[in-house]
Design brief:
5 strands; single chain; alpha+beta; 33% strand
Length: 92
């Protein structure tokens, strides 16, 4: 199952596991937020030029791929509070 990490560059946080999601839950998150594919390696917050705000990352292992999701890491373009609220809505 895909993982969702919260990254906080200002705190030098490499990424904290926030949730394990089903594919339908990932689709729901992607429908709410713009998702950008980052590649096969977990993004180093300190290595993202101009990136100082917190962000969320979805990860998909190679055995979890679908036509919509390839293996690797995706950034959700939203602040962590909004992503956290979306997670709470999914849990209901």
């Amino acid at each position: 199952m895909p993982n969702l990490y919260f990254c906080q560059p200002h705190a030098k946080n490499q990424g904290m596991l926030r949730a394990v999601l089903s594919l339908p839950e990932c689709e729901s998150m992607a429908s709410e937020y713009h998702v950008t594919y980052l590649g096969e390696e977990f993004p180093a917050p300190s290595g993202l030029e101009g990136q100082s705000s917190d962000f969320a990352v979805l990860s998909f292992r190679s055995d979890e791929t679908t036509p919509s999701w390839r293996s690797g890491y995706y950034r959700l373009d939203s602040d962590l509070a909004a992503v956290n609220d979306a997670l709470h809505r999914l849990a209901r």
